Amino acid sequence: MTFTDQLNRDLEIHAWPPRRIVSLVPSQTELLADLGLENEVVGITKFCVHPEKWFREKTRVGGTKTLNTEKIKNLKPNLIIGNKEENERTQIEELAAHHPVWLSDVRTLEQAFDMMAKVGELVGKAAETQKLIGKIITEFALCPPPSTRCPAAYFIWRKPYMVAGGDTFIDEMLRVAGFHNVFSYKSRYPEITLEELAEAKPEVILLSSEPYPFAEKHFEPLREVCPNARIQLVDGEMFSWYGSRLLHSAAYFQKIRETLNLA
Q1: Using CA atoms, how far apart are residues 132 and 194, in angstroms rounded to an integer?
Q2: Residues 113, 103: contact at Cβ < 8 Å?
Q3: What angle do helix axes 126-142 and 109-122 make, rounded to 10 degrees?
Q4: By the 8 A CB rule, do 87 and 64 touch?
Q5: 10: closest CA among 1, 2, 20?
Q6: Does pLDDT of 263 surpass 70?
Q7: Residue 144 domain-assigned?
Q8: Using 50, 70 and 90 to split pLDDT, how confident is the model at 31?
Q9: 117, 215: one domain
Q10: Which of 113, 139, 165 is the last residue of a domain?
Q11: Staple 162 to which of 4, 61, 151, 157, CB 3.0 to 4.6 Å?
Q12: 209, burial (CB in 10 Å: exposed 0-12, middle 13-18, buried 19+)
């Protein structure tokens, strides 16, 4: 059968539905688990921590950007599922020369739903996926954001400081969560200085748990330049994972707004 990925690339899967799947993206690995593909998924990355049972038991094929391509080839997959941003192009091209590789490209909530629907069809779980998407849409409808969006900066790294800019899924989720990203005018994941942070005047500074594990000990330098901003540690998975983790994001965003007295 022929399928089209989110980069508009066509790929042939001769043995469908696929019985040997390697997933190269944590959020998509969790989606495959929630679709009941326990036996079909044979390889995951070292960052695919959900579900925990899979992390313990399934073959790990390296990091998302440091894949062990020989290990993947030895698993004899008849489908590899990756992502344009999270995986390295040269490694994907090497794998695609030997196996069907389906790539996602997700920067909006609608694209996340499109990814889920396409993956559902790809693995023979279309009905189950549509049901899952419906549940996520309902959750977001039950927890709408306030009409006025609070100016916020979302940090993903320190030394150097890096934030989520525009044209990212995090930027989209900040909007959905009720925030205005003060760095949305910058592209992707820019480095910023503390002087730029002060000039941006965020009312809220969100420090993500991933990829850098921010903690309260990191508050002080930010508080010095933005003394009036509220600083909040947040679960990065809720803002950046674009698979079935979205089932929990809407309620989490509402809880964050309540914590910050924004609800």
Answers
A1: 41
A2: no
A3: 160
A4: yes
A5: 2
A6: no
A7: no
A8: very high
A9: no
A10: 139
A11: 157
A12: middle
pLDDT digits (tens, 9 = 90+) for 123-160: 999 999 999 999 999 999 998 888 899 999 999 999 99
* Both tokens assigned to 182: 């003060």
What pLDDT does residue 15 have? Answer: 86
Cis omega (within 30 of 0) for bond into 160: yes
Q: What global pTM score does this model have?
A: 0.95
CB distance 177 to 208 below 8 Å: no
CA triple 165-154-231, angle to 5 deg: 155
Output the CA angle 244-246-256, nearest 5 degrees. Answer: 150
Two structure tokens written together for 132: 């899952």
Q: At CA 38, angle to CA 60 and CA 41, rounded to 5? A: 45
Residue 116's closest CA among 195, 43, 7, 28?
28
CA distance 1 to 137: 30
Q: Which of 109, 65, 83 is nearest to 5 (CA)?
A: 83
